[in-house]
Write a structure and sequence with these properties.
Blueprint lengths: L1 E4 L12 E3 L2 H8 L5 E3 L2 H35 L1 E6 L6 E6 L1 H10 L10 E2 L4 E3 L1 E10 L2 E11 L2
Length: 150
């Protein structure tokens, strides 16, 4: 089935791309979530308009992403508290939502939890590096200090 992507889909393409996918993938995942539309002659004519608006947003978002990166670098290390056992192991693990809340609490920008890359599970006390994808061209790194809750 030929579809036009309305949003960036990892492993498939960017917004405005016309791609060929299996019917079930398009009907069950991409179309219901609004990530794509069926490629008709009328829709294919709108692809250029979609691409122009995406380019304008991307330039504006690039500048905004660089501002957010500067704010994150000014924060330094973000402290996050969690419950620990007597042996010093965490109950559960630190999630991307926990990191976003800790950054917000420390006075940082409001981030999307889907943009946070934990590099695996954080299940121990100490300092951990966390990557944040602010834009396809801009990535920031945040140091998260996990401490025991009292």
């Amino acid at each position: 089935m030929k579809i036009i992507l309305t949003a960036d889909v990892s492993g498939l393409g960017e917004s405005g791309d016309i791609v060929e996918v299996k019917d079930g993938y398009a009907r069950n995942l991409l179309l219901p979530r609004g990530l794509a539309i069926v490629a008709t002659k009328g829709a294919q004519k709108q692809v250029e308009t979609i691409r122009r608006t995406q380019e304008a947003r991307r330039v504006r978002n690039l500048e905004h992403a660089q501002e957010l990166k500067a704010q994150l670098q000014e924060l330094g290390s973000v402290v996050l508290t969690a419950k620990v056992s007597a042996q010093g192991k965490l109950f559960g693990s630190i999630t991307a939502a926990d990191v976003v809340a800790a950054v917000r609490k420390a006075g940082g920008p409001n981030l999307d939890k889907r943009s946070v890359d934990l590099r695996g599970h954080i299940k121990a006390l100490g300092k951990h590096g966390v990557d944040v994808r602010l834009h396809p061209d801009v990535k920031a790194s945040v140091d998260v200090q996990v401490a025991a809750a009292k």
